[in-house]
Fold each of these.
Amino acid sequence: MSQNSNLFLSIGKPVKDEYGRVMGKVASLALTPSGKFDAVFIEQSDGKFTKHPTEHLKFDGADVTFISKTKSQATLLCDQIPLIWRKNQALKDLVEKKKISPELYQELHNNFEGALNQLKNDAQALSQEVTNEIARCDEEIKMLNYAVVHLELEHEIGKVDDQNYKSAFTMLQENLRRVNVEKTSMELTKNKLSNILLGDSQKTPEQQTSKDSKTPDHQAPELPEPPVVVYVKEIGKAGI
């Protein structure tokens, strides 16, 4: 979260997710006794109130963006797992160089192994959550495409006038764009978690750099924005 002294300016302002959807608006801010911003109370569009830790929110002046908990956790795991793995390897080097005793090595090694196994379990559970989110995106894309088809049919037979058609069509296309971007983002997150669990990211920085320079396509690419469905009508037929 970006900390600054003007977070109170966000009260009453809309909260959007990373893809531009409005989640609700800021109702209040919670502070610790020392004056540190701790949480944000959000009034959702259905009138319900939720409380979110400030680390899951990004503040830019009065603009508030909700950062996906799933992506935040994935980023944390993708940082922690390789770090602990490298420390464990460094510990092995130290005992081989007789810089630490075998007894101390074994104790610390067991601690690192325990932490590493727990983080891997967390990554596997999170990967399944991401898979579920991707499936949800697929279902939403399917539903939106059906909505577009039905809108086209009703407009074609004259049940929906041009003005309402344009408004609804724009809304559906915007939602299609957002959910496609979300799906792509989740797929990249799943790939990162998979690489961690497979051990691809547990190389030393030098090894990883060398590997990446030889196989650049191994890196998760920055995918282009998915195409948005656009329907083109004959001029003069629908007046669009």
Note: DSSP finds four helices and six strands in the chain.
Amino acid sequence: MSFAMIEANHPGPASAARADDARWDAVRRRDGAFDGKFFFAVRTTGVYCRPSCASRQAKRENVTFFATPEAAEKAGYRACKRCRPDKLGAPDPKVEAVKRACDRIASAEETPTLADLAGGAGMSPHHFHRVFKKIAGVTPKAYAAQTKARRAAEGLRSAGTVTEAIYDAGFNSSSRFYETAAARLGMTPTALRRGGQGAVIRFAVGETSLGAALVAATDKGVCAIMLGQDPDALARELQDRFPRAEFVGGDPAFEQMVAAVVGLIEAPGKRNDLPLDILGTAFQERVWQALRAIPAGKTATYAEIARAIGRPTAARAVAQACAANPLAVAIPCHRVVRADGDISGYRWGVERKRALLDREAA
């Protein structure tokens, strides 16, 4: 529960103490979702910070909370030089440096070296590597690999040959590409280029209290969970994604996987250990990873997810990544709401989103 909810539910002096407890809990977790909502100051240092500040944690009895930087400074505190709470609205230089590096990687024919990227950001290679991973969620090398794999996946659908798509994507050799192709594409490059030709996808439809749930999986893991009223329509949508794949019914092991998905719908608090086979852009994968970190019974706003992945101005892009999620409930995009608390859109229907949230709240 956030401190704003506590204040609304418990007006008066007691609510202030409860709100401060919630604020302190956010500070202990270094929760970036609360950056800008309040600031904390430390009497022994005379400094005020954002809740997410990575500086050494102060003792609770030395901490005071303020609503704005101006209020903290009026009380005699100065801004922390590490988290720069007075520059909260300004672009973070480190975030901007990582964004430039990502753009450079995406547009380069040859992947830039770590030293080149670090030099462009004005940092040492070691420091840049650490900053990049913290903000992007992956290392520069992994981001470059994801970018090339995405290019290859797109090119395989239109290129004349697999080899042409591989080199157009920026791989220096076909052998290097094939080393990682299965892990990143979920099937062979030739199968992906041919609409899944030669790939075997198991699928089955389970009945839930929210309608039909289609579950599909490759050998790597679940690649689709779709909700709807018409099982035939869901099957056609899956076949449209992989028009030349071989679709087979589920064996007993697969039926257990379908049952696990149905369990996530009927009892959302269950532990989710499903193996997943999903490929998205580096940004989408960061968003989906953040969604999986939201506990059942809790919600987050698009802006909070954007801040959590280090892209505070990308709330709209976060919403688009949620809409592109092909794995209902396993990647819980239903737990993301608008800033005003409105349920807003949901790929599988707003009523299903509301029902899932009601179940989790209970």
Note: Strands lie at 39-42, 47-49, 63-66, 78-79, 200-208, 211-217, 222-228, 246-248, 300-301, 336-337.
Amino acid sequence: MLILVTNDDGIYAPGLKALSLALTSIGRVAVVAPERERSAVGHGITMHKPLRVTEVPWPDPIGKAMAINGNPADCVKLALEALLDEKPVLVVSGINRGENVGTYVFYSGTVSGAIEGCINGLPSLAVSLAGEEEPLDYSFAARFTALLAREVVEKGLPSGVFLNINVPHLPPEQIKGVRATRLGRRRYIDTISCRKDPRGRDYYWLAGKKDDYDHNPETDVGL
């Protein structure tokens, strides 16, 4: 069986490599990912320029990956409709650097990679590592995702449903278990920074900090 893997952190992201190699324990893996970081692009697809494919060497047993000059949704769409000789049984997007929870999932390229798989009728997972300290260790999240992926392949998911998974960046022995939650509410405040370029003209940079205003422990934000 074939598993399609993508992400939004780009083809050279360590989370993508860890995830793809872990998934080889349950099947063959095709890696089709953006050529550079495409975080927070949402479900954008590329319609006004050509999409190009570049082969990238990848560790065995995968051997090679494909880098696309587009967004995660482009990668999944292109893989399913043009690049793969076989229909995958599962689409997995990640492992993202940082959590994807609450209303931020609507901006997330990682989540959109899974949504595109779901749109095409395939069981799909989006996976993120909830931590900000560097370096991030993706090994446990990758192993957990492989175990969950096996369950999803064997048992399936309801039509129109995908899973958004956030793994704490903690030692495995400190992770207490698995919780199914609903989306909470999260926004970013002080998000626009106005600066001056060398010619004295204003330009704007998106920045900001998290403002979690949903502390219900039944939500992904409150949990």
Note: The chain has a mean pLDDT of 91.
